[in-house]
Design a protein that fits this description.
The structure is a single chain. With 84 residues, this protein is an alpha+beta fold. The protein has one domain: YefM-like domain (YefM-like fold), CATH 3.40.1620.10. Helices cover 44% and strands 17% of the residues. The protein has a three-stranded mixed beta sheet. Strand 2 and strand 3 form a beta hairpin. It is elongated. The protein starts with a strand and ends with a helix.
Protein backbone atom coordinates (compact mmCIF):
# COMPACT_ATOMS: atom_id res chain seq x y z
CA UNK A 1 0.00 0.00 0.00
CA UNK A 2 1.28 3.40 -0.97
CA UNK A 3 0.95 6.18 1.66
CA UNK A 4 1.25 9.82 0.60
CA UNK A 5 0.49 13.19 2.14
CA UNK A 6 -2.51 15.20 0.96
CA UNK A 7 -0.12 17.81 -0.45
CA UNK A 8 1.77 15.16 -2.44
CA UNK A 9 -1.52 13.72 -3.69
CA UNK A 10 -2.75 17.13 -4.88
CA UNK A 11 0.53 17.81 -6.65
CA UNK A 12 0.48 14.49 -8.54
CA UNK A 13 -3.20 13.57 -8.52
CA UNK A 14 -3.34 12.13 -12.04
CA UNK A 15 -0.37 9.84 -11.44
CA UNK A 16 -1.80 8.51 -8.18
CA UNK A 17 -5.26 7.95 -9.67
CA UNK A 18 -3.66 6.08 -12.57
CA UNK A 19 -1.87 3.88 -10.02
CA UNK A 20 -5.17 3.15 -8.27
CA UNK A 21 -6.74 2.25 -11.61
CA UNK A 22 -3.86 -0.17 -12.15
CA UNK A 23 -4.61 -1.90 -8.83
CA UNK A 24 -2.28 -0.08 -6.43
CA UNK A 25 -3.80 0.64 -3.00
CA UNK A 26 -3.45 4.29 -1.96
CA UNK A 27 -3.73 5.85 1.48
CA UNK A 28 -3.70 9.63 1.77
CA UNK A 29 -2.53 10.91 5.13
CA UNK A 30 -3.89 14.29 6.24
CA UNK A 31 -3.10 15.91 9.54
CA UNK A 32 -2.42 13.95 12.71
CA UNK A 33 -5.25 11.43 12.79
CA UNK A 34 -6.90 11.58 9.37
CA UNK A 35 -6.31 9.14 6.53
CA UNK A 36 -8.30 8.28 3.43
CA UNK A 37 -8.16 5.19 1.27
CA UNK A 38 -8.68 5.79 -2.44
CA UNK A 39 -10.35 2.99 -4.41
CA UNK A 40 -11.98 2.97 -7.84
CA UNK A 41 -15.77 2.96 -7.96
CA UNK A 42 -17.23 -0.28 -9.28
CA UNK A 43 -20.68 -1.11 -10.57
CA UNK A 44 -21.51 -2.53 -7.13
CA UNK A 45 -20.87 0.88 -5.56
CA UNK A 46 -23.59 2.81 -7.40
CA UNK A 47 -26.45 4.17 -5.33
CA UNK A 48 -29.21 2.82 -7.57
CA UNK A 49 -29.01 -0.74 -8.80
CA UNK A 50 -29.25 -1.34 -12.54
CA UNK A 51 -32.39 -3.39 -12.01
CA UNK A 52 -34.25 -0.16 -11.14
CA UNK A 53 -33.32 1.64 -14.36
CA UNK A 54 -36.11 1.47 -16.90
CA UNK A 55 -35.55 1.06 -20.60
CA UNK A 56 -37.73 3.01 -23.04
CA UNK A 57 -40.64 0.94 -24.26
CA UNK A 58 -43.56 1.15 -26.65
CA UNK A 59 -45.42 3.55 -24.34
CA UNK A 60 -42.72 6.15 -24.97
CA UNK A 61 -43.71 6.22 -28.64
CA UNK A 62 -47.26 7.13 -27.61
CA UNK A 63 -46.15 10.20 -25.64
CA UNK A 64 -47.49 13.56 -26.71
CA UNK A 65 -45.35 16.47 -27.77
CA UNK A 66 -45.83 19.70 -25.83
CA UNK A 67 -47.72 21.23 -28.74
CA UNK A 68 -50.13 18.26 -28.92
CA UNK A 69 -50.67 18.38 -25.16
CA UNK A 70 -51.32 22.14 -25.23
CA UNK A 71 -53.77 21.81 -28.12
CA UNK A 72 -55.73 19.04 -26.38
CA UNK A 73 -55.72 20.89 -23.05
CA UNK A 74 -57.10 24.09 -24.60
CA UNK A 75 -59.76 22.09 -26.41
CA UNK A 76 -60.76 20.30 -23.19
CA UNK A 77 -60.92 23.56 -21.19
CA UNK A 78 -63.01 25.16 -23.93
CA UNK A 79 -65.45 22.22 -23.80
CA UNK A 80 -65.74 22.60 -20.02
CA UNK A 81 -66.62 26.29 -20.36
CA UNK A 82 -69.24 25.52 -23.03
CA UNK A 83 -71.03 23.13 -20.64
CA UNK A 84 -71.64 25.86 -18.07
Amino acid sequence: MLVVSSREFRANQKNYLDMVDAGQELLIHRGKNKSYRIVPVTEDDVLVSREYFMEPDAEYARALSFEEFKERAFKHVGELYERK
